[in-house]
């Protein structure tokens, strides 16, 4: 480094001499002499001054100790190198101003965007508000059209509402037609809250009938209703429990016997003669091969209906 124009980049004005002075023969063996006048001490670990580019012993390694002729030169080079480096945010415009404007609430006189009141931006309506009106309910956000949103003409809005109303009317008509085609008024689902269901199931367990030999953990307690053979003014009802491992077809046979409903599913191939099981809470007709444990839970209601077919969905409002 003694003969090089590129100075070492250490944090001090001096560095230890190792193989810096390659021009000196056997420098690692004989060391070098301190270049301070009147010292000339032989030092096997000399120090190199980055300012005056001379070597010194341990005692005279600093610029002040050897009265450096070019003191501060290394520091100036180091400072210039640091200033030449790129810094974070270089090439970007720094914001050195504050944009002041009134709160977006019409009747609010508060000026936001100052050093004391920065303001809060609402991402829903794309407006800026003071701290008092920062919440959505405080500036009536749901009734505001977002700034920058594409305006919607009255005709387009009316067409959208009309299409939605037609879709809802079509769905209601389909369900009403299904009910009229079946010619039946189906029961409503049992209470849907967890507490009400728990109370209903506990009461159902006290009155439900079934095979006493069936283990309690295998039982599913159900409300069962069916068409009466002599009248259509009401539906015969009963409370029964069945095994979780049964299929719906077996439940249908057992329920038909319990409610004394004629069951000719195995004798007639006509759909109008067959009984089907309708799940009130699920709003659908259950297939004969479905497992009870996977389709029903305790407290549900099933209805035995004749001639409705397997493909009539959602006969009641869910």
Quick structural overview:
With 318 residues, the chain is an alpha+beta fold. Helices cover 23% and strands 16% of the residues.
Radius of gyration: 46 Å
Order of SSEs:
EHEEEEHEEEEHHEEHEEHE
The low-confidence runs, each spanning 5 or more residues with pLDDT under 50, are 1-8, 19-25, 94-98, 311-318
Approximately how much beta-strand content do the residues carry? 15-25%
Instruction: Say how many strands there are.
Output: 14
Q: What's the name of the CATH homologous superfamily of the largest domain?
A: Phosphatidylinositol 3-kinase Catalytic Subunit, Chain A, domain 1
Biggest sheet architecture: 5 strands, mixed
| Structural class determined from secondary elements | alpha+beta
GO molecular function: zinc ion binding
InterPro entries: AN1-like_Znf, UBL_ZFAND1-like, Znf_AN1
Protein name: AN1-type domain-containing protein
GO cellular component, one term: cytoplasm
Structural features, described:
The chain is of the alpha+beta class. It folds into 3 domains: 14-84, Zf-an1 domain; 101-143, AN1-like Zinc finger (Zf-an1 domain); 183-306, Phosphatidylinositol 3-kinase Catalytic Subunit, Chain A, domain 1 (Ubiquitin-like (UB roll)), CATH 3.10.20.90. The protein is built from 6 helices and 14 strands. The chain has a 5-stranded mixed sheet. The longest helix has 29 residues, at 154-182.
């Amino acid at each position: 480094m003694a003969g090089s124009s590129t100075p070492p980049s250490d944090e001090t004005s001096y560095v230890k001499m190792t193989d810096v002075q390659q021009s000196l023969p056997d420098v690692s063996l004989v060391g070098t002499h301190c270049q301070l006048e009147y010292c000339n001490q032989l030092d096997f670990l000399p120090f190199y001054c980055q300012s005056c580019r001379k070597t010194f012993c341990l005692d005279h390694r600093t610029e002040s100790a050897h009265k450096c002729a070019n003191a501060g030169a290394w520091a100036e080079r180091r400072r210039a190198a640091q200033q030449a480096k790129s810094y974070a945010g270089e090439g970007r415009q720094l914001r050195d101003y504050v944009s002041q404007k009134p709160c977006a609430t019409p009747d609010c006189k508060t000026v936001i965007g100052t050093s004391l009141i920065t303001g809060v931006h609402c991402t829903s309506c794309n407006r800026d508000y003071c701290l008092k009106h920062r919440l959505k309910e405080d500036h009536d956000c749901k009734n505001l059209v977002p700034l920058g949103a594409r305006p919607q003409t009255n005709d387009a809005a009316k067409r959208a509402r009309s299409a939605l109303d037609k879709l809802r009317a079509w769905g209601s008509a389909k369900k009403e037609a299904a009910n009229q085609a079946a010619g039946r008024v189906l029961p409503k689902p049992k209470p849907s809250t967890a507490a009400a269901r728990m109370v209903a199931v506990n009461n159902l367990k006290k009155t439900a009938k079934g095979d006493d030999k069936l283990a309690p953990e295998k039982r599913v307690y159900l409300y069962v209703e069916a068409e009466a053979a002599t009248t259509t003014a009401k539906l015969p009802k009963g409370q029964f429990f069945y095994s979780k491992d049964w299929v719906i077809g077996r439940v249908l046979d057992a329920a038909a016997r319990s409610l004394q409903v004629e069951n000719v599913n195995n004798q007639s191939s006509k759909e109008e003669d067959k009984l089907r099981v309708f799940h009130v809470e699920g709003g659908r007709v259950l297939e004969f091969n479905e497992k009870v444990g996977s389709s029903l839970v305790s407290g549900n209601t099933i209805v035995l209906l004749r001639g409705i077919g397997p493909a009539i969905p959602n006969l009641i409002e869910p």
